[in-house]
Amino acid sequence: MGNNTDIITNLNGTSDKDRVIIFDTTLRDGEQALTASLSVTEKLQIAQAIERLGVDIIEAGFPVSSPGDFNSVQQIAKTVKNSIVCGLSRAVEGDIKACADALSVADQFRIHTFISTSDVHVQQKLKKDFSDVEAMAIHAVKYARRFTDDVEFSCEDAGRTPIDNLCRMVEQAIKAGASTINIPDTVGYTLPNEFGGIIETLYNRVPNIDKAIISVHCHNDLGLAVANSMAAIQAGARQIECTINGIGERAGNCSLEEVAMIMKTRQDLLGVHSNIKHQEIARTSKLVSHLCNMPVQPNKAIVGANAFSHSSGIHQDGMLKASNTYEIMTPESVGISKTKLNLTSRSGRHVIKHRMESLGYQTDDYDLDTLYQDFLKLADKKGQVFDDDLEALLYNIQQQEKQVHYRIEDLSVQSGAGHFATAGVKLAIGEQVEIQSATGNGPVDALYQAIKKAVDEEFEVSDYKISNKGAGEDGLGVADLVVKFNGRNFHGYGIATDIIEASGQALVSALNAIQRAKQIASLREQRQQQPPKSSVI
Ligand code: KIV
Ligand code: ZN
Prior knowledge:
Largest sheet: 8 strands, parallel, barrel
Distance between the termini: 61 Å
Strand content: 15-25%
Number of helices: 20
CATH architecture of the largest domain: Alpha-Beta Barrel
Mean pLDDT: 90
Helix content: 40-55%
Bound molecules: 3-methyl-2-oxobutanoic acid, zinc ion
Structural class: alpha/beta
Radius of gyration: 25 Å
């Protein structure tokens, strides 16, 4: 392994050569794979959760790709203080300039520029020669260095790049001024020993390799993203690019929570560590799954619902005798609390406050009086209130606090076997109130028809899903859907004791997202119509 400690010192204020830098790309590689894109507010919520998790670098987006992406990268760069915010750019000046413009509001930022280096990409996708690509990469890195010292260069499809070309490109990019070199396995093709071997060869053959941090970015097409990333770390790489819950293009990216817990649990063998605050893992995973409308499979390592549950009698017997018989890490270590809580209408405010604290919320994250009033109403309806219920109540309060255009004031539905369902809705639309009713082939369809009449917009609901959150029969109904409007997808989410109410909330939340998008578009149009400053003078 080379001597890259100076760069680690500069980046992290530490000269710890055993520290692995965690680069999170949930908001870029992860977001680009979602059916409905996230709003700026949702991206900010995720960025702040990722910052709290202790991530070193947050790749916030691809600023040149759309005005919306530019805006969200800029907002994140303004807000996040404890992680370095980064933007992605192709190896062309326009992209790099867009990154610099979006990020320059931050004290410290990174520009990440990339170009393909494999034969198949260079010849088939870019229709160029390797030497053209090399020249573009050198120019891009030098150009990016005009805006910041922190430039990362990626050789897209490095996993399938002939090793001589890869060594040549890495050497040139470092010479041009890149302080991080990223080696992506873009199509998730390599095997762990093969990928580790690529990193080892770079350390052996690239003369200036000690001037940069070697990073890896592995996709999960063969289910090997985490294994490949760990093999690279064992070969000397010191940055892992990953996403929460492993979301990302196709089968996804390397999962952040898995690499963080591997480094913690097998420190004995690996001898490396990260700055991740492991106890924040569970709640960050939940937030990302929820806002991205991407459920986590129950048997997913670390954050799946079954990751810490034991079914077989033999296992349960072992667990009762000593938990380390079947658990190599505790659920508490990733922020999952095992404590069973009996929260009822007799529970006081301090009990709720204490429970929220143990779920990881600070008192300034919520208003205790409002939460407590809502808790009492729910406890009257349900008897017992669970942790998931409390988090759902908090989510609903946060939604109500937002300036929304549409709000359901009341609804009623009648349905039964063999009959048409009928629904009525009282919908607040800005300052107006609209009351409508409709029939449908089921209660949700009837409600959606009534809402459609009230809002008078042409939209189509797709991907409607309902699920249960919380404890069995006492759980809350959750509705998730995607609304197609003007060729774009908008995600809607609703949660309530009643599944019909949750479905109504989900549609209305998507309609509010459409309304926000319309407002942004009309503001942009107005700005474009304003005469340029010079002609006013
Ligand atoms: O998978 C990939 O190669 C990428 C690059 C842009 C880093 O996402
Ligand atoms: Zn990728």
